[in-house]
Structure formats: structure tokens, C-alpha cells
Automatic annotation (TrEMBL), chain B:
SUPFAM superfamilies the UniProt entry points to: P-loop containing nucleoside triphosphate hydrolases (SSF52540)
Gene Ontology MF, one: ATP hydrolysis activity
Keyword set, alphabetical order: Amino-acid transport, ATP-binding, Cell membrane, Membrane, Nucleotide-binding, Transport
Matches recorded under PANTHER family: AMINO ACID IMPORT ATP-BINDING PROTEIN (PTHR43166), GLUTAMATE_ASPARTATE IMPORT ATP-BINDING PROTEIN GLTL (PTHR43166:SF9)
Membrane topology, record value: Peripheral membrane protein
Annotated ranges, domain ABC transporter: 6-240
A single cellular component GO annotation: plasma membrane
Domain of life, per lineage: Bacteria
Chief localization: membrane
Name the record gives this protein: ABC-type polar amino acid transport system, ATPase component
Keyword Transmembrane helix: no
Family: Belongs to the ABC transporter superfamily.
Amino acid sequence: MRKKRVWASLVLALFLFIFAFALPQNTTNTSAAAKTAAEYDKDKTFRVGMEAGYAPFNWTQSSSSNGAVKIQGSSEYANGYDVQMAKKIAKALGKKLVIVKTDWNGLPPALTSGKIDAIIAGMSPTPARRKQIDFTNTYYKSKLCIVVRRNGKYANATSIQDFKGAKLTAQQNTFHYQAIKQIKGVKKQPAMNNFAAMRTSLQSGVIDGYVSEVPEGITAQNAQSDLKMIKFKNGKGFKTSPDDVDIAIGIRKGDPDKAKMNAALAKVSNKQRDKLMNWAVEKQPKTSSTKNWFQQIWDQYGNMILKGTGLTLWISLFGTVVGFLIGLLIGIVRTTPMPDSRGRRGVLHLIDWLLAVYIEIIRGTPMIVQAAVFYYGLAQAFGINMNRTVAALIIVSFNTGAYMAEIIRSGIISVNSGQFEAASALGMTHFQLMRKVVLPQAIRNSIPTITNEFIVNIKDTSVLSVISVSELFFQGETVAGQTFQFFHTYLIISVIYLVLTFSISRILAWVERRLDGPTNYDVMANPSTLATVDDSTAENMNTPTHDVHNTKEDQHD
Amino acid sequence: MTEQLIEVAHLKKNFGKHEVLKDINLTVDKGEVLTIIGASGSGKSTLLRNINLLERPTSGDIRFHGKSILQPHFDIPKYRAEVGMVFQQFNLFSNLNVLDNCVVGQTTVLKRDKAEAEEIAKKQLAKVGMGPYIQAKPAQLSGGQQQRVAIARAVCMDPEALLFDEPTSALDPEMVDEVLDTMKQLAKTGLTMIVVTHEMAFAHDVSDQVVFMKDGVLAEKGTPDQIFNHPQEAATQHFLKRYTQR
Ligand SMILES: Nc1ncnc2c1ncn2[C@@H]1O[C@H](COP(=O)(O)OP(=O)(O)OP(=O)(O)O)[C@@H](O)[C@H]1O
Ligand SMILES: [Mg+2]
């Protein structure tokens, strides 16, 4: 067993090694990706990736008002500066615009793997990004600012150097975060994933400010009266490179449409750009304060949250059931006694070893990594484009399968060996005795652990946001990002998670009791049998009783 | 003319370096009741388990109807259906009720249809006095009741021979008789039986042949009268003295 483990880990290492080398190759020459891009050209669609949660550049809304565009695979709409720009580009290209809602960190892999055709998401063409992807000319020029508390210590700052000793942060993987270094004596905080989180941290005093760009700063200031944006005069602010403050459209290297896009962008004057940005700041979702916080969130986003709940439940239910079946199959195979024939023994050893490798790989890597490798990896390495929900179902099923295999196996091992022996002594084959005798007991004994696995799945589907599956947590992120009600949104989300997991543990506890059957039996249950029984018992049980006495007497003689 | 049913020839069984069975030779005729007695650890269970192929012999041969059961491609499930086994710990299937315990082997191994199997099972359960309990789960029964069900379960398969490994050793004294009585009834039907037991009275009354086992060899064989009343070997005498003094 130990030896097997070692081998499995070696194979895992090898597997990751190969993958690590296979991927960069494909990102640099993008042959596979370019091919899929060509295919999509035929479709005449222009698929644009964005967070749809970075107002005023892009946001999610529930109606098509103000020229919003439907988000792919969802009943919601995207709008904002980016969306309006994307419409202009799509028109110039003569294609139909499709908005693909994608996590910020998922945007570059989605582009290189061919899942989207362009990133229009307030993204700057940094040198690091340029290594992976190409950019068009600028479509907006922004400026860095710092958002602080209106009544705080730094509210009257005029230079970035006034922020000595301040706790500052910025969004992960942005140049905003890099820029914090320019302030002497600043207390740089860990980067955060989204603006909603930063605003909440700022309001609660965890940080003193965050570095952002002017449009976002205006938005924050408008949406929340206790926040204030600090702009800096030339020479007092951050030194920025055009690579950073310029905002451009991310495209695949060698995209034939680049010139057409640049031509379309050139037609939009700076004045028009400023006008469009003002419009976006004006039109972005606002928080009204007449209702209580719950009603506010629920009226506007209740549907979104419910759909997310449904998807979470569906993915984890499906994953648990299929994972259970996978585990059952593996459990049976891995407890098969070794056959006598040498050839068959070899095959069984090989299968057993492969299954051990599968289990080690799945259990040894986080599901978030599995999801990213599977979804983006398949697309990047082989050009396979998969529906997100399908990918999620596959990932959760196989992930659960590995854990279930061990649960079922230990369930089987815990069944008394006498049960196996009695069943084989009746002439049952391994499969028969498993099905009729051992598995029912193993499964019964495993129900508490299986329940646990189901509950873990409900919660762990949240990591699927990395491939932008709109499950409960992903929806929560979006809502929080738009309402800026970080705490309240997640409070609602956690109550929903709790209701789901609690109901599941109740339901399975009930199933467990049902399987055990009644605690007492009814001797008179079947009168028709009792009739026959009475006759035969009478003649059969009486005679031996006499014999017993005889035997004992014989013995004493 | 008696027919030889089971024949054990030069049987050896090692567990690692530990030689548990050393050159066992034995024949059991059809309809015969053979009792194996002997001290704990002498290899009685191991011998039965080899005959049923729950253990694989190290060397030697076991023949059933004159055919070796150790040859390649021998149909082991079919053989096991024909030579049943009753265990010291009963080993009833704890997920099934009494009736299903007796039905499951018939439907899966013998491919009988469910109605027929149930009818047979009810008949056999009635014979062992367990008719009223067909709905009960094994855990809800006393040891003696469980062992009677286990016997009915084995008999439902219409076996040619039944192996009993100390069927009463795990029972409280007051339940021993009900099980022994059931076994006596079976012996009367002409079923071939190999019984490992410490119940000397039963061995004396019911057996056609008794063997005394010591340290993996058959130290003495004979009729019940020869073994119990005129034992030749010192070891047999010593062993019996301990049991009859009780
Ligand atoms: N699977 C096994 N592996 C190793 N040794 C074993 C195994 N099964 C039995 N033995 C050994 O074989 C010897 C004979 O055991 P066996 O169970 O056949 O004795 P027994 O005569 O049935 O004793 P008892 O009356 O206590 O049931 C013992 O020394 C035991 O330790
Ligand atoms: Mg024994």
C-alpha cells in the first residue's frame, strides 16, 4: 500500500510537469487557439469577456434598459462604458456582440484558450500582459486616485506622500497595487479580489484607503456618502506609464481584426469618450435607501440569488450522486479478490494501480485548481470548448468520486468477514455477494460520511466561480460588487448555504432511519405462513425435545 | 453399496511457515455423519475451510464425487452450493430479514424464481421452528434462533453435504439443545454431514464416524463406540477425560 502511494505521487508529479511544459508552448504560438478563433469567425459573433461588476466600466443589470446587452448563458444584462464600446467595435466588425461574464483573473486564460475573442474590461496593456496577449490602441485614458473615508485622517491629502503610515491596498493583479510602492513609509496591505471588498474594508476601518482609477473613484464617492476620492495634481500623484493608465482591448496575438478595431476606436474622439464615461457614471446601478437592506437586495437580485441557489444544489446533487456511483464501482473493483490466472491478475493490478493514481491526483490537488486546469487547460491544449455547467458537473463528479471510492472501500472493509464467508459458502460470486450482502451494509454504514461529502460539495461548488459558473457564491460576488453591500449580501448567501446543508443532513438522517427498518418485528406479520408453520413446528419441534432427554440419559448410563 | 462423496488425500495447509494441516486423509460416504473432535488450535476449522475452499490447500487433493475440486476451471460457486457451511458465529446477513437470508442464495446462485424460493424458505424455516420470525432482522434474534436460521439457509440450497464448524460453541447452554435437535433431524434425512463439535454426547449419538484431531494430524479414527468407549491413543484418552469430567 505504501509503495502504491509513492508511485501514485510520482505519476502525479510527472503529470503536472508535462502539463506545465505543454501549456506555455500553446500560449505563445496560439495555434490551437487561433484555429478556434477562425471557427468562430464563421459564427459571426464577437465574444467579449468582462467581469460585469466594475462600474462604471461594466456592470450587471436585470433589464435591457439603457442599451444593455444580454450576458451569455444568463438572463441578466451587462452595461457600462465597456459594453457601449464593445457595441461600436462589434458593429465595425460586422458581428453580433456576445458578452461573456468572466472573473477578472479568468479573463486572460479565457482569451488565450479561445473562449472569448476580446477582453473589454477596463484592462491596461501592461508589459506582463503583453507577453501573453496583444492589445489594440487605447479606448480610455484613466488616472490613479485614492479612495478614503470622508471623515478620516487622509481626507484632505493632496499628495501621495501624505499617505505615509496609511494602510493602503488595491485590486489583485493590477498596476494600482504596484503603484502603492511609490509612497514612502506606506503600510501596504495584501491585495484584494474586488472593489466591493475594498469599499467594505475601508468603511469598517480595516484599511485607510485603496488605490483606484478616477471613474471608479467617482462611483464610490457617489454611491457611498462616507467615502471620498482624492485626485492628485500633476507631480503630486502617482507616476504611471501609458501601459497602465491607457485602457485597451485585449486580443489574441495575431488577431486579424486588430486593424479594424483600431480604426473603429479612432473614430471615437476624446470628447466623446469623456461624455460616454459621464453617461456610464450616471447610469450605473445605484443604491436607494428607502427600503431596508434585505428588501433592497432581494427586490433587485432575489431572482439572481435563487437561480444561483438552484445551480449550486443541482451541481452538488448531481456531483454527489455520480460521484457515489463512481465510488461504488471503484470500491467493488478494488476489493475484488485476486484471481488465480496470472493474466487476469496482471490486468486487475494495472486497473487497481490506475485507480490509485486517479484517487491520489484528485485528493492531492485543490478542486479550484482542477477546475481551472480542466476547463481552461482542455481549451488551451486541445481547443475543446465546453459548456461551463457541463464542465462543473464533470469536475464535481470526478472529484467526489475519488473521495467516495475511499469511503465505500472503507465501508466494505468494515463489513464483518463472516458476511463474505457465509455468502461465498452459499456459492455467490464476488459481484453477487457485493450486490446482495456487502454493499447494502457498506453503504448503510457510510451514509453519515456520504452526507458529509454532499454538504462539502454544496459549499465547495463556490470554487467553481473560477470558471465563472454562476452558482450561489458567484452570484453573491456579483450582487456584492454592485450593491456595495458586501457584508449584507454574504449574510444572505450564508443563510442560504446553511438552510441547504441543514436540510440535506436532516433528509439523509431520515433516509438512514428508513434503511434500518422498524426497531421491532411483528411475529404475526404473515398469518398465511403462520398456519403452515404451526403444523410443522408441532411435529418437528416436539420430537427432538424427547431426543434431547434420551441423549442426556444415555450419557449418564 | 456406499458411494464416496468427499475424499481428502494427503492434504497439507501452511500459513506461512506454520504447518497447520499435515497429511490429512479422510473419506466421507454419502449419507454419513462424520464428527471431528480435538483440542483448540488443532486445525479442525482449517480442515473444514479447506473442504469448502474458503482456504486454498497448500498440497494434496480434495475430491467430490471422485473429481478433484482443485483442478483449474473447476466451478467453485456450484460446488459451494452443493456443499454448504454453518458457522460458529452464524454469519446471518445482517442487512436481510430471516426470510430473505434463506431466499437470497436460492435466487442468485440457483436462479430459482422468488416465489418458489420463498416457499422453500418458509418450509425450511418452519422445520427449524423459525416460521413466526420470518420478518425479523438477525440482530433481533437470540443466538440459538440465529443458528437455526443459518441451518435453514444452508438447507434451502438442497446441498449434498453440510459442514458445521462448532455450531453450538457461541451459544448459551440453554440454547445448545435446540440447535443440536435441529441437526439431529437433518442427520435423519440422510444428509451427509461433517461436524466439528465439542458436544461429545451429540458426537456419540449421531455420528457414523468420529475422528480425533491433534496438531494438524488425524490422531485416531473410528466408530463412536471405538473412539468414546475404547480409545487406543493416549492423546485421545487424555482429551476425552477432560471433556467427560466436565
Ligand atoms: N488465516 C490464518 N493465518 C495464520 N494462521 C492461522 C490462520 N487460520 C488458522 N491459523 C492457525 O492454524 C491453527 C489451527 O487453527 P484452527 O482454527 O483450524 O483450529 P481449531 O482446531 O478450529 O481450533 P478451535 O477449536 O479453537 O476452533 C491455529 O494455530 C491458528 O492460529
Ligand atoms: Mg475452530
